[in-house]
Amino acid sequence: MVRYHKQTRILVAIDCIIFGFDGTELKLLLVQRGLEYEKGKWSLMGGFIQKDEDFSRGSARILKELTGLEGVYMEQLYAFGEVNRDPIERTVSVAYFALIDIHQYEKQLNEDYHAEWFPIKDTPKLIFDHQQMVDMAKEKLRYKAAFHPILFELLPEKFTLPQLQSLYEGIFDYQFDKRNFSRKLQSTKLLVKQKDKDKESSKKGAFYYKLDKRRYAANFHAFLNLIPNPGNLK
Amino acid sequence: MVRYHKQTRILVAIDCIIFGFDGTELKLLLVQRGLEYEKGKWSLMGGFIQKDEDFSRGSARILKELTGLEGVYMEQLYAFGEVNRDPIERTVSVAYFALIDIHQYEKQLNEDYHAEWFPIKDTPKLIFDHQQMVDMAKEKLRYKAAFHPILFELLPEKFTLPQLQSLYEGIFDYQFDKRNFSRKLQSTKLLVKQKDKDKESSKKGAFYYKLDKRRYAANFHAFLNLIPNPGNLK
DNA sequence: ATAATAAGTGTTTTTTTTACAATTAATAAT
DNA sequence: ATTATTAATTGTAAAAAAAACACTTATTAT
User: Fold this and answer.
1) Which chain A residues are closer than 8 Å to B136 by Cβ?
2) Under a CB-based contact definition with an 8 Å cutoff, are residues A18 and A133 in contact?
3) Model pLDDT for residues B151-163, shown as the tens digit of each residue
4) Which of A12, A89, A230 is facing B92, going by the closest CB pair?
């Protein structure tokens, strides 16, 4: 087989940033590093890409191996290429991120795995450049959320308006007006009201909604000024 | 030196997507591939990352080597990791892109290099997955242009409002209303009117403007609905 | 002097966004 | 059974932004 000559071949890693939402708070999933050097320190879920594996397969495999999570839709965040970002050996890392419904994956994420959810505002020190990765992912989540009515595939199947608002408030660390928030979402016509209610969080109960997937697919790129004064975003 | 064991090391390439604007039309810079296999075919400017080189140095070096261009600010687009994207040998490619003022770099891009500008709407067939890269870069350019008042570092030093409008019209392939476009831009207070005019394109001449860099830096993330009905974007 | 060309500019209407508070449904306590 | 409690739900008016629309102006060439 022909190959390119005299070129440097480099380790390529994938790191997964998994945000979770439990209906109230935004959290970050972390594991304790298994490899030598910094072993035991908190870290994103990471591993090396294999010979015949592309990024999406690789990221799915790594997430599965380290947390048990399957079927999580991840999106590419950024490729990190600093020469000394991994002190053991030069490694390029392609970071992937997702936002999932914590409850939906509760069972998969069992005791066998040493993965833990941390409140996004109270995370431990991370190895290498992982904090930088998390910060960038938060920024990207905000950016997307600011202009897209729904956080993509990232929502639970069924959700209430107060939950959705909490999610946005978690992401933006800001309080929104209930009436205006609701009106803007309804105006997208992407929400289908269900007949049942979530009674967990109030006596009255809040109606569930589902995403109208047909409309959403047809309207993937619909922009919406969901938060007031987006110009105030950092 | 310690290394990670039993892991696959892979070639990492950088490919550069350079859009250019000549005051009228949006163009794409291409070169004829120098390496064997598909030699002579049109291609993005690409090369392998070297041992002690990070992405930004690497992309600058590759662009310089193949086109003579220096000092171009590029931004990371996406990492492409399909297993067989390069038929010679597995290669991961990190794509970088930029939008530059064609006239400003005219001298650097001389006959020594076999780089050519193509109208964005009339580009030749490209090797590998380079067309996919270009398409994604166009999409990202649109996304940025839709919400950011000025195309970042991507503008010529001095520009006229009609030129800027042409640029946006090129990017969006859509005609805007002069009055509304002008009013929206002026409302950002980021433009400083100059005393001289560009007399190239009309008898009356159009006043030059410069970007207020102080304000821009302070306001980097300001969002602005610069195009009508952004929801109509694909 | 006049014609030709593209730049520059204002107003009205419509739509969107914002600010703001009372009512309702369900349950728990008395 | 009544009442208290809690959080969900809903409307309106004022302000701001966006969109639609066409004439005037500066300059050069004829």
Assistant:
1) none
2) no
3) 656 677 889 999 9
4) A12
- CATH number, domain B149-232, options 3.20.10.10, 3.30.2350.10, 2.40.30.20, 1.10.10.10: 1.10.10.10
pLDDT of residue A171: 85
Nearest CA-CA distance, residue B216 and chain A, Å:
13
- Considering chain A, what is the average pLDDT of its residues? 88
Q: In this complex, is the C-beta atom of B7 within 8 Å of any C-beta atom belonging to chain A? A: yes
Which helix (H) or strand (E) segment holds residue A105: the answer is: none
Residue A104 three-state SS? helix
Paired sense of beta strands B191-198 and B206-211, if any: antiparallel
- Domain positions in chain B: 11-145, 149-232
The letter for the amino acid at A185 is: L
- Inform me whether the C-beta atom of residue A7 falls under 8 Å from chain B C-beta atoms: yes
Cβ of B82 and A54 within 8 Å?
Answer: yes
From A61-65, B57-61, B154-158, B227-231, the region with the lowest mean pLDDT: B227-231
- The beta-carbon neighbor of B231 closest among A11, A37, A222 is A222
Least confident of A104-113, A219-228, B78-87, B202-211: A219-228
Q: How far is CA B53 from CA A10, A12, A47, A90, in A?
A: 12, 15, 22, 10
Provide the CATH topology of domain B11-145.
Nucleoside Triphosphate Pyrophosphohydrolase (3.90.79)
